[in-house]
Specification:
437 residues; 2 domains; nine-stranded mixed beta sheet; 13 strands
Length: 437
Amino acid sequence: MSTVSRLPGIVTTDHVFRLPLDHATPQGERIEVYAREVVAAGREQADLPWLLFLQGGPGGKAARPLGRDAWLERALDDYRVLLLDQRGTGRSTPATRQTLARRGGAQEQADYLAHFRADSIVRDAELIRHQLLGADRRWSVLGQSFGGFCILTYLSIAPEGLTEAFVTGGLAGLGSSADDVYRAAYPRVARKNEDHYARFPQDVEAVRRIAAHLAATPATLPDGGLLTVEAFQALGLMLGGGSGSGTLHYLLEEAWVDGAAGPELSDTFLAGVQARLSFAEGPLYAVLHESIYGQRSVDQGGTAWSAERVRKEFPQFDARAALDSDSPVLFTGEMIYPWMFDTDPALRPLKETADLLAARTDWPDLYDPARLAANTVPVVAAVYHDDMYVETADSLETARAVRGVRTWITNEWEHDGLRASGGTVLDRLIKMAHGEA
């Protein structure tokens, strides 16, 4: 029986669906997929159109609303919203170091996780649509970041289920390999570093001091994780959000205290770093990250730890070399590296599993260029100028390749514009889709 809850301005209803692990064998093993229905208070019985929200990631659960939060403020004016915990996340059947251990060894775990990409998420959504709305009723879909990648897969697999699609920071390159993605990403991340150091020039020396300390003596985080200089650089993931640069600066401000033996990294700093680097709440983000770019027609060699390999082409990200010169130490961005499975306790048991996924060469294609070229579903997309996470040139090329896409290119927001803008970004996209802008 569904549980109904009331929060300020909203009414939520829990839904749990038992769906096939492998959609190619629908009578086989089943998993649970959870979704939270959200409607404006007082409109519970209204016949509203549905809006499915596909969260960023991979491996990210849907937001837990406390009311008409962020973009929900605008969405609930027009829609009944379904917040999907994509398979393996949140209240769906979890996939973590604890649960995956029950499946057997690394090979069994890797084979299981091969069913957790965008194509499976889309097929989950279609079965859910049939159960909630009926086979003949379509819904709208909103995809943030990786959720936008999923929308492109949706338009390739089952466009008949969609009325309209809204994409925020998530038009993927249809034919981009993982290597292509990272070769484009490192220069963007370098620019975000330049912007950060221009805003906070005092951070150049602050970062060098911390990096030099960690290069000589890695620190232990409160959860037992290891803070190496490379792990410290991974805090650059923050630089892709609207408030990320300032938040990083304030974290660096509290890096040092005077301990019994002299200056040492503070517990406040180490706890703050752990909160941003640990994958305990979302291990699939790390384990599956590069697989979202895997398509056998694009790259027959697999992803093969692409971010690590391509990094060698950009020596400016070598922290130790920077310390030997007078160069700033650069932070990295949305990159997953194999050493993370050594430094993070939540990932260590999944190291061999991740290696097997990185070596996999038979990933099915996620996009159907011919079907996308003949698309009839209205699509509107916010493309953030110089988005640190998604290459703008790829987004615009995809917009040209998918029939019926309208883009709004803006430098007012960063990658997190959907959330950070309240309802502003979504309002603009809805007006575009409905002919009002």
